[in-house]
From TrEMBL:
Keywords: DNA-binding, Transcription, Transcription regulation
Species, as recorded: Leucobacter massiliensis
Protein name: AraC family transcriptional regulator
InterPro entries given in the database record: Class_I_gatase-like, DJ-1/PfpI, Homeodomain-like_sf, HTH_AraC, HTH_AraC-typ_CS, INH-QAR
Molecular-function GO terms, alphabetical: DNA-binding transcription factor activity; sequence-specific DNA binding
Length: 312
């Protein structure tokens, strides 16, 4: 039997806690035992109107083979408890695997064990994670990241994908597929699949070029160059490029490409236009270009995206 510990923090998200507890649940068909713990035993205020009462403190981590840190509220404003950070480091040092679901990545990042590695979290928090922990290579697109001894996943449902991925590696396909059927979940989704964030165009940290960005969004189907953007903003192309990156984190043309992909996504969801028509109307030119940019930004194809999200 392999031992699994699920650490519940203040503000823990119920689904994030429940997923590993249920996937690795102690039963005859599963070679695991599960302990749910807190920094210390007793009541814990959770998120979404729920609270928890756990019997175990961090001593449950001491002999665990696999430790999960579920997501919790306000990770960008509150640091993980130092006692947890130390316990996770000790567990990792003796060979335990550490896995974070959603914003649990912040607690795992606090240990320093993600430094120099790829990691992900819920799309809403990827920028905060990258800014607080710049040594981490944050991947905003994917469902989960497996870096061997440390693993991270995106929003709650992707925690199921991460758990099934771990099951496939540790216990084999038969056990993983059995668990997926029990959960009525897809038996396999690649970690590299996109999170399908509401927008791939990032929020702006500045207002200087707001009108120019709004203008660009209304003219995505037309040829747009740096020179044309600079003319609208009444600055030189060099100034536009420098200041635009400061405000958005992207070059002007990277931002335009992502805005076009977002518009293409809307058309795929809401219309039955052919892929080449969508590519032309969004300024991406050809269906081949649209597929290439979709793969680059979202890790999927327009056809797969439409199949997943089309209201039809």
């Amino acid at each position: 039997m392999r031992r699994v510990a699920v650490v519940v923090l203040e503000g823990a998200k119920p689904l994030d806690v429940g997923i590993p507890a249920q996937v690795f649940t102690t039963r005859a068909s599963m070679p695991y035992s599960v302990s749910v713990c807190g920094v210390r035993p007793g009541p814990i205020a959770g998120g979404d109107g729920l609270s928890y009462r756990v019997e175990h403190g961090l001593e449950a981590i001491e002999d665990a083979d696999l430790v999960f840190v579920p997501g919790y509220r306000n990770p960008d404003r509150e640091r993980a408890p130092a006692e947890l950070t130390d316990a996770l480091r000790r567990a990792h040092a003796r060979g335990a695997r550490l896995a974070a679901i959603s914003t649990g990545a912040f607690a795992l990042a606090e240990t320093g064990l993600l430094d120099g590695r790829r990691a992900t979290t819920h799309w809403h928090y990827v920028r905060a994670l990258a800014e607080r922990y710049p040594a981490i290579r944050v991947d905003e697109r994917v469902l989960f990241v497996d870096e061997g001894s440390v693993l991270t996943s995106a929003g709650a449902a992707s925690g199921i994908d991460l758990c099934l991925h771990i099951l496939r590696k540790e216990a084999g396909m038969a056990v993983a597929n059995h668990a997926a059927r029990r959960l009525v979940a897809a038996p396999y989704r690649s970690g590299g699949q996109a999170q399908y964030v509401p927008q791939s165009v990032p929020e702006s940290h500045g207002e200087r070029f707001t009108r120019t960005r709004e203008w660009a969004l209304r003219h995505l189907g037309e040829p747009i160059t740096i020179e044309r953007l600079a003319e609208h903003a009444a600055v030189s192309p060099r100034t536009l490029s420098r200041r635009f990156r400061d405000e958005t984190g992207y070059t002007p043309m990277q931002w335009i490409m992502r805005a076009r992909v977002d518009r293409a996504r809307e058309l795929l969801e809401e219309t039955d236009l052919a892929v080449d028509e969508i590519a032309s109307s969004t300024g991406l030119g050809t269906a081949t270009n649209l597929r290439r940019y979709f793969r680059r930004v979202l890790g999927t194809t327009p056809t797969e995206y439409r199949r997943t999200f089309s209201e039809a």
